[in-house]
Amino acid sequence: MIWTLFIAIVVLCAIGLYRLRQLRQRAQRQQRQQALSQIRLLRQLLEQAQRHRGLSFGSMSGEHALEARRWSVHQQLQQLLASTAEYEASLYWYDSWHQARDLWRQIESGFEHESAEQLLMLHNQMIGCLLQTVEALANRFDLVCLGRLAPQAEGLWLELLQNIELLGQSRAVGTGIAANRQNLPRWRDALDALKVQIQAQSYAALARLISDPDLRTLVSQPVREAEDTLDILLERIRVLLERQPSPGVHSLDFFQVATQAISAQLLLVDILLERLAAGGSQPRRSEPSGIR
């Protein structure tokens, strides 16, 4: 009788532990999915903030044809920021998120009294804070290394986002130079430095992505398109820097070429994030509980 009772208790404990493990795994999957939803919204914010920066700097540098587009992007940014209210309780714990919101308020109020250069710097700081928030979420929920010691191919989305910021900065500075009001040695030096960074980092990330056998079929065509648009952008930067004092590239054309290069890499980010959301690659170790 005692042994029967003992065996029954052991069985019930085993069933309880199994059920508890299932509930914990389900909670972890839900937390991971919520983190990915936050990251995808922040990725949209990054795209529009970068676009707003380029349009603002170009418009304030003399290309007034960009102003209507800047205002349209401004409205999209406002809508996206309003959409973050759903995640405010989670994002609240990240100082970089609060800094990004504060910087956006400074940008909004600065158009009446700040210079184009000061607004560019504020945009850069805001976008840097958004990237820090994305990186904090990625590290907390193991969305880059995926339970291993080094970043995995599916986790290259974060590096791509960081490289895209180099393209975004080059778009803003190059558009200002092409508009000719910002055609000063310090801006040409800044654009040349960005070109060197892009050449050193962007192609390498794309090569690592396409070298992964599990991803090659999925990303081969988008990677080729990203490389092609990157080639075109770097060529336009070369022309812009060499043909002085009068730029050899129209500001609207430069903005569009840079935007195509950025969009091609954002597509790869979206593909990788969608793969993670679909469960294409799961972390091996336990994830921290609770979104903060």
Write up this protein.
There is one protein chain. The chain is an all-alpha fold and 292 residues long. The protein is built from nine helices and no strands. It has helices at 2-60, 67-83, 88-91, 95-110, 116-140, 157-178, 185-210, 216-242, 251-277. Helix 5 runs antiparallel to helix 6 (157-178) and helix 6 (157-178) runs antiparallel to helix 9. The longest helix has 59 residues, at 2-60. The N and C termini lie far apart (50 Å). Residues 283-292 have low confidence and may be disordered.
In short:
The chain has 292 residues and is mostly helical. The chain has nine helices and no strands.
Summarize the helices and strands and which ones pair or pack.
Layout: H1 2-60, H2 67-83, H3 88-91, H4 95-110, H5 116-140, H6 157-178, H7 185-210, H8 216-242, H9 251-277
Helical residue percent?
over 70%
Unreliable runs: 283-292
Mean pLDDT: 88
Derived structural class: mainly alpha
Q: What percentage of amino acids are in beta strands? A: under 5%
- What is the count of β-strands? 0
Order of helices and strands: HHHHHHHHH
Choose one word for the global shape. globular
Cα separation of the termini = 50 Å
Q: From the alpha-carbon coordinates, what is the Rg to the nearest angstrom?
A: 23 Å
Number of helices: 9
**Biggest sheet layout:** none
